[in-house]
Amino acid sequence: MFGGEPGADCAAVQWALPRPRRLVSPVGGTGRDRGRGTNPEQLFAACFHGTLSLVARQATLGPGAIAVAATVGFGPVPGGGSGYVLRVDLVVKWPDIAPEIAAPLLEKAHALCPCARMVSHGAPATLAPAP
């Protein structure tokens, strides 16, 4: 929900999500939105960071200074299809871990990460009017 305050019913988790000014360009993450709430880039990066940290610990590697940057785009379906799609690009900096060691762990984290799975495989959704 953009421009609202989604969260759990218990109010333990709540975020302010700024309404993007344009819906066919990357959503959030630019200077115009800084300080106005959590953006999709931060949410995707945090989710992948947590999953990769878990995968690193399972592989007996310390997650150390993993840094994840995300770019989120929202635009028309490529090739002229109808509707809109979400695209997420992640860049991971993992100092002191060789690329040949990091690559399979990144793939495993991508397969496990709920946000990455949602984008890659779609997420079931329901729609119902509020009572």
TrEMBL record:
One of its GO terms (biological process) is response to oxidative stress. This is Peroxiredoxin. InterPro entries: KH_dom-like_a/b, OHR, OsmC/Ohr_fam, OsmC/Ohrsf. Belongs to the OsmC/Ohr family. It holds the Pfam family OsmC. It comes from Streptomyces shenzhenensis.
